């Protein structure tokens, strides 16, 4: 599957449709610099990307990488209709074998400029569960291409991102493994109950897994233990309260789940390099 880190978001460049007669082949291309998304509505495309075979029957899709050579493996055996869409991203992307749980991270050190980063995980190829919806979006994209305006370009990007999200959601269930599902569930529980005292025992009882297994899953997914994850999340909530409210610092420590004020100050200093009072004065 492909992993896209955003922002910046992947962006739509152009799209179209083609119909191949029996015996026709897709053009041979090398390192075209854009992702090529092929969505077949009738017949079948038999593609190859540097030795890897991609068979795309009706109701299926496949992505071709921007940095590799691709061609038809064999000609079409029947009349074949397909949509094609070119896109690229200015952000990082990679081809991975497993999905990581969703986690939003601040992309800037200034608390008033907290740009959240997230990732798309999209299977390289697969079957469309709602093909008519996808076909409709592609027809709308092609229609918008005929309207050269800023408003049209804006709408194109919105439709394209809806399409990527649809492909991610359709392929997400098959791509997840048990370890990462447990990590995601644990993280969601910690975020929901961060104001409360939480122990490994309680986490284990809520998720119905041994605490050591939950910790192993979170280490694999997030690179930290459940309590480390919880502390980081509490600190981020405390930052927002320090900036946006006039609450006493002691009350903020209690509200964000820290047992004592000295412990809050110690944790805050460890994660931010400054004390809560100094942090508030700097950004207020």
UniProtKB/TrEMBL annotation:
Domain of life from the UniProt record: Bacteria
Domain HTH araC/xylS-type: 184-282
Molecular function via GO: DNA-binding transcription factor activity; sequence-specific DNA binding
Family annotation (InterPro entries): Homeodomain-like_sf (IPR009057), HTH-like (IPR037923), HTH_AraC (IPR018060)
Keywords: DNA-binding, Transcription, Transcription regulation
One Pfam family matching this protein: HTH_18
Protein name in UniProt: Helix-turn-helix domain-containing protein
Upper lineage: Bacteria, Bacillati, Bacillota, Bacilli, Bacillales
